[in-house]
Q: What sequence folds into this?
């Protein structure tokens, strides 16, 4: 889990732009959230992104009797069509405040933490 000093550097939802030479599978791991029984529940999400396309992962919320918990993306792992894997872990480069619209781009060699995709669209 990201350390306390990175408390505000959270990504709740993001876009993945596939700029690689082939289709990719993206696996998201979220920060573990304690259950009422005291166990840690860590959730995951998967996304298939075709070459040249952009897809979005929406915010995940756990509803509790007295409050809601917004889940935080802890790791982004990409599996390319050839089986090779890449990953980036929180805190993600460039994130300074909690965001719901962060952009990651995937090339043949890396996952880039780009910035707020709504700002990127304006360029």
A:
């Amino acid at each position: 889990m990201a350390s306390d000093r990175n408390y505000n550097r959270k990504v709740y939802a993001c876009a993945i732009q596939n700029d690689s030479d082939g289709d990719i599978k993206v696996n998201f791991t979220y920060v573990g959230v304690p259950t009422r029984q005291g166990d840690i529940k860590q959730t995951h999400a998967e996304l298939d992104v075709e070459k040249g396309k952009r897809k979005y992962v929406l915010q995940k919320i756990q509803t509790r009797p007295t409050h809601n918990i917004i889940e935080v993306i802890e790791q982004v792992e990409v599996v390319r069509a050839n089986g090779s894997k890449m990953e980036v872990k929180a805190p993600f480069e460039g994130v300074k405040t909690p965001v719901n619209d962060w952009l990651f781009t995937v090339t043949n060699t890396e996952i880039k933490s780009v910035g707020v995709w709504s700002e990127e669209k304006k360029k």
Summary: Helices lie at 117-121. The two ends are 33 Å apart (CA to CA). The domain at 4-121 is CATH 2.60.40 (Immunoglobulin-like). Residues 117-121 form the longest helix (5 residues).
